[in-house]
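Annex B. Sample input.
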Amino acid sequence: MKKMYLSLGLVFLMIMPVLQAQETDVVVRVRSKDAKFIGSSIGGAKILIKNAETGELLASGMTTGSTGDTQLIMQEPHSRNQRLTDKQTAGFLATLDLEEPVFVSVEAIAPYNKKQARVVSSTQLWLLPGKDISGEGLVLEVPGFVVDILSPQTHERTGSESTIDIKANVVMMCGCPVTPGGIWDANQYEVTAVLKRDGKQVQELQLEAGEKPSTFSAETTLEPGLYELLVYAYDPVHGNTGLDRTNFIVN
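Annex B, continued. Sample output.
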């Protein structure tokens, strides 16, 4: 009997280290397609780490930090295993206490503060106790543009003989500026305004880039009515898209 107890005790001692929780760091970063990392300057990306089998939320938070080194990320050639991030580059660090391997889903909602532009990017992977995912970390990509209609303002009233000034701000999902001939070349993108009255399209206008970075505009005149304005941006090279809507009134 003593031998049996002794054997059970040895088995228990052998199992104990395996069941002890180990701190495991997971760094998650979110990168804008054809651009830089999503960080504090645009409000960050919301990160959710969940147990893929049970749905239990293991960690959540926002990416914080800088968008990264423009020259390194966008202008220099990259080799395998070359880091594109440093300590200042935006990311979210989760420290989990894991007793055993867990299969997780990792979601990024970005850019979180721009509801009309939010995109969800996700992946799944095994997390192993004590095996950190650090350094560059797990990088999720989100496509798109952030488009904000600046004019007309929501529910603005204008006269039928007045010139309607249509103006929109267009930036990459990281907040990086769009300029003619720049790294993110405004001349490469199609920015279009679509006007509807009573649910029917009445005009389509191409917006042109102005002197102010990321600002596109056009002018038109309209008959009296209730209008919906839709402005979209499209990059035929990388497939990025973005859109915003508003409503206004012509008396």
